[in-house]
């Protein structure tokens, strides 16, 4: 069990691929698919985290998120002040 934990730590700390990434790349190579380079999360979650949207659309999203965040904190302050009265 300690070896497994040590291996997990090593793949996180060092630039070594995990065993499943190695297996996946090997299988893709055998299947005629060019294996991806880089990390698993970057390969599969990049489009989810960084969708291909226009700069204008991204700016609108950021503004909406900031407004929602400010509204949440303003509500928390309002609730806190009412509780202290």
What percent of the residues sit in helical stretches (DSSP H or I)? Answer: over 70%
Low-confidence stretches: none
Helix-strand pattern, N to C?
Answer: HHHH
Global Rg: 22 Å
SSE diagram, text form:
Blueprint: H1 2-13, H2 19-30, H3 40-49, H4 55-84
List keywords for this structure.
85 residues; mainly alpha; elongated
Textual characterization of the structure:
The chain folds into 2 domains: 1-51, no CATH class; 53-85. The chain is built from 4 helices and no strands. The protein has helices at 2-13, 19-30, 40-49, 55-84. The protein is elongated and about 70 Å long. The model has no long low-confidence stretch (mean pLDDT 79).
Short description:
With 85 residues, the protein is mostly helical. The chain contains 4 helices and no strands.
């Amino acid at each position: 069990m300690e070896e497994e934990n040590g291996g997990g730590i090593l793949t996180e700390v060092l630039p070594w691929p995990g065993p499943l990434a190695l297996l996946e790349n090997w299988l893709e190579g055998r299947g005629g698919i060019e294996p991806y380079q880089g990390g698993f999360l970057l390969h599969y979650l990049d489009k989810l985290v960084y969708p291909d949207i226009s700069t204008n659309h991204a700016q609108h999203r950021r503004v909406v998120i900031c407004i929602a965040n400010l509204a949440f904190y303003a509500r928390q302050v309002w609730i806190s002040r009412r509780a202290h009265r």
